[in-house]
Amino acid sequence: MLVRPPSGKKVLWQEMLRHELLSAIDQRAVVIVPVGSIEQHGPHCPQDVDISIPYYLAIRTADAIDDFPVVVAPPVTYGFTHYNMGEVGTISLGLDLFINILCDVSRSIWKNGFRRIIMLNGHGGNIAPNWVASVKLAEEDIWALAITYFNMAPVEMAAIAKADEGSIGHGGELETSLQLYLRDGLVDMNRAVKDEWRQKFSPEVQKYAQFPERRREMANGVMGDPFFASAEKGERLFNVYLDKLVALCREYHDSEEPRYMEFGSHCPQYPLHG
Fold it and tell me: Which residues pair with 148 in a beta bridge?
């Protein structure tokens, strides 16, 4: 999956020449690391849904901003998705390995001199590990924002969705809509199904009592109703995320980098007085 901006602008880290990266550092560039997974998304969607969306968002964001560089790092394609191993097509990393990969990628970007890093996640099972990686890095005075694209716009998602109550789902209404907008040739709606939840707890109890990520409890691995999906919904939703990510990059670029000891997170060493 190699996608370039519609304008032809060079934004991919791996395609840049040495002087271009050095110039980007001087211009306080924002570096976006797309983070996702390879896993089943029902019978109708491809396996790379959860990395494709943050990747496209990163590319389009870099294309939309001209007054400073936004660099798109090579994506962290594999994620933490052991609970989907019951469905063919899924490739999962171990939890510790996944966190370590996120940390090492961010450390490397930081050591190159970039001080504004966004780990842009597109997979539900990665949310907690992505945050843990950010916390581990902060302890080293390395700062990488951990965000998940579908957590940026809950109000807009609820307004656009007609069937899934604003949830991104899993091969359901909104996720399928995004795929129909971005890559309709990879979606086969003739194979789409709507699964029923096989819940262990009542909907009311599940609001506060859930198991950690596990194999999806649907017969065909679909959360939500893909029959309400459309490319038009996907375009509206993608543009909402895009606007929010552009706004974040602009504020991130304009702000000074945080420092761990800025507010006394480490005890200063004072000379002893008699």
Answer: 121
**b/e code 169-182 from CB counts within 10 Å (16+ = b):** bbbbbbbbbbbbbb
3-state SS, one letter per residue, for 27-56: CCCEEEEEECCECCCCCCCCCCHHHHHHHH
Residues 6+ apart with CB under 8 A from 156: 237, 240
The answer for residues whose C-beta is within 8 angstroms of residue 49's C-beta and 6 or more apart is 41, 122, 171, 175, 179
Which 3-state string (H, E, C) describes 142-163?
CCEEEEEHHHCCHHHHHHHCCC
The answer to whether the beta carbons of residues 55 and 5 sit under 8 Å apart is no
Which residue from 216, 209, 227, 208 is spatially nearest to 164, judged by alpha carbons? Answer: 227
Give me the residue label for tokens 């998304």: 41
Closest to 240 in 3D by CA, of 177, 187, 165: 177
Assigned token pair, 242: 């895009």
Here the tokens at position 75 are: 């994506």
d(CA 186, CA 234): 14
**Model pTM greater than 0.90?**
yes
Condensed to tens digits (0 to 9), the pLDDT of residues 183-228 reads: 999 999 999 999 887 777 888 898 888 776 655 667 888 999 999 9
Residue 262, CA distances (Å) to 79, 126, 146, 232 in order? 33, 29, 20, 46
